Amino acid sequence: MSKYIYELTMKVRDYECDLQGVVNNANYQHYAEHTRHEFLLSKGVSFAKLHEQGVDPVVARINMAFKASLKSGDEFVSKLYVKKEGIKYVFYQDIFRKEDNKLALKAIVETVCVINGKLCHSELFDTVFAPYLF
Predict the structure, then answer these.
(1) 126 is catalytic
(2) For residue 17, what pLDDT is reported?
């Protein structure tokens, strides 16, 4: 049984690559963030609507280990699962090249919730993530 609770397939675009012909390291963070946002949207949670309500989930810390390079045109699958540690929600995110299922990135993203300018616990996210927390 897979530990992943969500996956998103994407494709590398030419402009995401550096002079060496591989995806620039900064773009992997974009892929990871896009995956988290799409996961939340799939659960009916919109970042824009949260912000309008004074709720801002933010990244507190990120650790990325680059394992293999993606190149222009590569399709890849970005997968995630989540754990709760105190008031933090920690996303474990892995990116695999679709062609050969080779691991390209391992990331750990610690997020917190700021509500009306104050760091605090989020009952909304506790509810949304409840089915996925072990």
Answers:
(1) no
(2) 96
Q: State the Cα–Cα distance between residues 12 and 24, nearest whole angstrom.
A: 11
User: How many Cβ atoms from other residues are within 10 Å of residue 107's Cβ?
Assistant: 21
Q: Is the pLDDT of residue 122 over 70?
A: yes
Active-site entry in 14, 18, 74, 94 = 18
2-31 b/e (C-beta count within 10 Å ≥ 16 → b): eeeebebebebeeebbeeeebbeeebbbeb
Pick the CATH number of 6-132 from 1.10.10.10, 3.40.920.10, 3.10.129.10, 3.90.226.10: 3.10.129.10
pTM of this prediction? Answer: 0.94
**How far apart, in whole angstroms, are the C-alpha atoms of residue 89 and residue 87?**
7
